[in-house]
Amino acid sequence: MVPSHFENEIEIAVNGKRHKLLVGNEQSLLDVLREKIKLTGAKKGCDQGACGSCTVLLDGVGVCSCLTLAVEAEGHSITTIEGLGEKDLDPIQRAFIQEDAFQCGFCTSGQILTARALLDKVPNPNLDEITEAFSGNLCRCGAYDRIAAAVLTVARESHSHHTKSKNRS
Amino acid sequence: MISEVAMKSHIRIDGIERVSGKAKYTSDTEMPNMLFGRVVMSLHAHAHVEIDTSQAEKYEGVKAVVTSKDGLVKWSAGDMLNERYAITDRPRFVGDIIGAVAADNRASAEKGAELVSVEYKDLPAVFDPKEALLSNAPKLWPKGNTQDIVRINRGGNFDGGEVIVSSTYRTSRTHPAPMETISVLASWEDSNLTLFTQSQGISNCRSDISNDLGIPLENVRVICRYKGGGFGNKNCAMNYDIIAALLSKKAGKPVLLEYSRYEDFLGHHTRWSTEQEYKLRMAKSGLIRSLEIATLCDIGAYGRHPTGTYVEGPDRLYPIPNFKLTVTPAYTNNPPTGNVRGPTEVQSYFALESAVDEAANKVRMDPLAFRLANLGQPPLYRTTSNGLEECIRRGAELFRWRETWNPPSKSAPIEGTKRGVGMALGDYESSVGRGEAELKLNLDGTVDLAVGVTDIGTGAKTTMAIIASEALGISVDNINVVWGDTSLCPFSIGESGSRTTSLTGPAVSAAAQELISKLKSEAAMSLQSDAREVQYEQGRFFASSGSRNQLTLGELAGRLESPIASRGATDISLPDGLRRYSYCAHFVEVEVDTDTGKIAILRYVAAHDSGKIVNKLTAESQIRGGIIMGLSTCLAEKYEVDRYGNILTSDLWTYHIQRMNGVPTIDVLFVETDDPFGPKTLGETSVLGVSPAVGNAVFNAVGSRLYELPFTPDYVYRTIHNGA
Is the pLDDT of residue A34 over 70? Predict the structure, then answer.
């Protein structure tokens, strides 16, 4: 790949912070996050959209940042693992630790953001919905059943919390 | 003896780092003025190369190009028999490294690598292991196309027994495919080299680098803090470690060498493929009298399996009185091979436990009863502990084997879906050996534990912290583990052979004992007692046995003038004639769609004897992960090469690894034998039983035997409908 002379200025919000950046037209969002903004939580596992290690949230929807051009992200809001639970861990992060839903941790940022996107859309998913949502996230260590368990734990907790507050009102 | 103490469960001590993106992997590491490196791989399978680097060197941003013209540098871990070079002038497979480029940005490094001009003078190549052994085959090596042929011959009576099973089993190449692709950052300061690399063993990597680059050990520092998966190959220096060091030396700047996923598929080495011919003879009662095995292994252009045995297990799992094994490794111009999780055993137990299942069926016995009867033959050797029969008993109970197993019936029409159950056993060597650990009590009452482990996902540093916490009687939260850096940590065997807990664990206990003994002297002064009288229990020192005059570890730390350190160095060996293994008994129920050949895994029970379990949470995860990887090997993974040596499965779209879909419920149970040498191996034992258990369950379901891994739908469909 020849360094491009064709660059564009984009403005994106990453984890709530605005960034004005000059990016190459061919540059992926993943490379911009890792190399320009120095957020290395999103990982490059394949650079082909096959593994899901680079998953970030684009306006709350999980995308492979390696398949998303940085210029496509112009004007959008992006959440990376660093932005999830910046102060306190997100419930899904806590559940990943408690359920041992990772081993080497390399794919974990992508798994957690996929989980977050699913739970935001479907607060109480069943196992089929979970499997469907994670179909693009590989885990070579084989933590799949623990990942599903972590998602179910968070769903159960928020459901019972929700029911309790409903009963109170 | 089975211990009945409740197992501990502790979350990983690095959980927050791993779930928050804070854990820095090698590819996340940066240094000031760092360059980026790429390798140049051979496009031909066997050739002499002439290389012209002038265009590459002229390209904007390129700072250094290295080839064999800079001098051949030996990579000693690259082949067990022949001399292999980190960068060669005679590539022996498509993907062999013939050069490398460093530039001040990634794009220039990639373009620079493309601009290295290569003239290939082709040599004849051979890709079929059988052809490679013929006398007129093209020679890869001056010593010929084979390594030492392994032969075991025990007993010598191969005519006895009235019932014969004669079968050939084949296993494919599989790739470790860790999620983190290869990267390494090398940096020189005068004559001192620092490598941030993806190692499974920083101590071994350091000594290999020292040897191969000819620099003193103390000038090499190897760091691996977080690593995105291991699965074999890397408890040594890798060629990319050497290449990054060479590039950095030549450029005079730090170099981060990176591989793409395609290059990673060639840069990590695969499991060797096998063809295993079995002849098993037994009495009508089902007692196995003899087993003859002849195995041919395609080890590719370079064979990195360090012991050269290639087949292990069938000689030891059952006490078979007459046993003969011949293993012929063949060099070919296919990509090289190395250790992949359960290196020799995965292929071996697929064949052995499939053959045993065939044998049980021939004498119309329940395969569980058949196995127990054969395990009951006079033992061939003594073991430190053996919970195999307990694994079978408890695993079968949980699985409800007696209620679910029925003899296979071939007469039923082959249509729709069919269910069946299968089982398989396995064992894995649990070596003992050298371990080291250092402890230090700080003035704030915390304890530093330095161990040379790398945490590739096994939970090694959590396990080591638990061992220290138990020995010192303090909370895991008060222990800071220092790991993954040869300048801060003592020797560790590294994360291969599932040995960390067995080898480094005892050193942690020894360091704790020494620390307690040193602290007793300090405590004696405070308690106005004699150090010999002082008792230590659960973080408290008592002036004497039964005394109420006491001091906590934290209080003592506060009174110290400087931290107190201790060191544990253990080197355990087994007494002559005594052997040590971990064991598993796996049970699985499958559903075969006879219209498509697709196998669905319905439920799985894994019973394991790995001795005492240090951390139930991570031990269960290791076993589940091993079974899931085993299912991937069994059902999908096939590393394919075309007839010119080009890899066909070079990305994660074409090389199929298990996804969440299809993962069954896995019940894990531990039989905690009280082994005199402590915990036994665990991580690799879990992959061994999967393929044969699934194959046996398919046989139970449809009455057809699967002889080849992987069990892809097309292979299963053909087998079922041809009645093979």
Answer: yes
Give the three-state DSSP class for B602: strand
Tell me the CA end-to-end span of chain B in Å, nearest whole number: 45
Would you give the DSSP letter of residue B69? G
**pLDDT reported for residue A86:** 80
Distance from CA of B15 to the nearest CA of A (A): 6
Which long-range CB contacts under 8 A does A61-65 form with residues at least 24 apart? A61/A117, A62/A113, A62/A114, A62/A116, A62/A117, A62/A118, A63/A29, A64/A30, A64/A136, A65/A28, A65/A29, A65/A30, A65/A33
- CB–CB of B716/B698 below 8 Å? yes
Its ipTM equals 0.96
Whether the pTM exceeds 0.90: the reply is yes
Instruction: Retrieve residue A84's tokens.
Output: 């999830």
CA dist B677 and B366 (Å) reads 35
pLDDT value at position A1?
Answer: 42
Residue among A41, A48, A130 whose CB faces B651 most closely: A48
Asked if residues B339 and B377 have their Cβ atoms less than 8 Å apart, the reply is: no
Give the model confidence (pLDDT) of B489-527 as tens digits: 999 998 888 888 999 999 999 999 999 999 999 999 999
Per the CB < 8 A criterion, the answer to whether B592 and B635 are in contact is no
Count Cβ atoms below 10 Å from residue B488 Cβ, excluding itself: 15
Query: B111 and A148 in contact by Cβ < 8 A?
Result: no
Tally DSSP H helices, then E strands, for chain A: 5, 5
DSSP-based three-state secondary structure for B277: strand
Residue A118: CB atoms within 10 A of its CB come to: 21
Report the 10 Å Cβ neighbour count for B301: 28
pLDDT of residue B409: 73
Distance from CA of B635 to the nearest CA of A (A): 15
pLDDT at A158: 86
pLDDT the model gives residue B411? 66
Enumerate the residues of chain B whose CB falls inside 8 A of the CB of residue A46.
181, 261, 651-652
Kindly tell me if the per-residue pLDDT of B26 is higher than 90.
yes
CB A32, CB A23: distance < 8 Å: yes
